[in-house]
Structure formats: C-alpha cells, structure tokens
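Exercise 3.2. Students should predict the tertiary structure of the chain below and write it as structure tokens, then compare their answer with the key that follows.

Predict this chain's 3D structure.
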Amino acid sequence: MALYEHIFLARQDVSQQQVEELTAALTEVLAAGGGKVTKNEYWGLKGLSYRIRKNRKAHYTLMNIDAPAPAVAEMERQMRINEDILRFMTVRVDELEEGPSAMMQKRDRDDRGDRDGGRPDRGGFGGERRPRRF
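Answer key:
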C-alpha cells in the first residue's frame, strides 16, 4: 500500500469535538477501503493567510495514511462534499515521519542565540549611537 500525508482545514465555527468526529469518519472511510491511519494530529485553530469562504481561521488536522489509492480517492470525494472542510491536501511520501510533526514540536526561544550576530556596530547596548536629526 502507498503512504500519504494528508492535511485538511475545517471551518472556524465548528468545535474541536466536531473536527475529531470528522477525522473519525474519514478514518472509517479509509478502513472500509482497506487502509489505516497511522498518525492523527490536531494542530489547533490557526489564522489563515487569506480568507477562504469568508473564514479567517481554520482548524488544522494532519493524518498519516497507509492505504491504497482508491481508498484515498474515496476519502477525498467525501471531503469535497462536506461543507465543513475548507481545503485539503494529500501528498504521497516514500516513508512516514515518526514522532510528532514539526508543528507539534515545541520550539525553544533560547535556541536562536544572539539576534544581532555579535556585531557591536549594530547599535543597541554596546554600539555607539548617533544623535537623531529632525
């Protein structure tokens, strides 16, 4: 069977529980077609870059899928019919990512280090400031 990463965006006015029920229904569609969902991650309600069908935010969900192509096609057909789903994208991959996805990993602010790159000529605390002219 083929391996897929699938992400879908649900409308902002549905609840998180409804999104989880929608994910369970899509998992059943895949199971009926002989596939299975190996990982399911709810990324939360996030802002969109632009409005989609008058929505400024959407619920993001990632699913890692191990299923034959007809099962994935049937799932996508069901998603096109459902009015709660704004967008979806399915990508075939060679291998599925283990562990949490990049969206779920907590990023530590201390890993960035010094923002000015250690350059004293960048102003701030160590550099010389020129007076402003108006």
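Discussion points: Strands lie at 2-11, 36-52, 55-67, 85-93. Residues 16-32 form the longest helix (17 residues).
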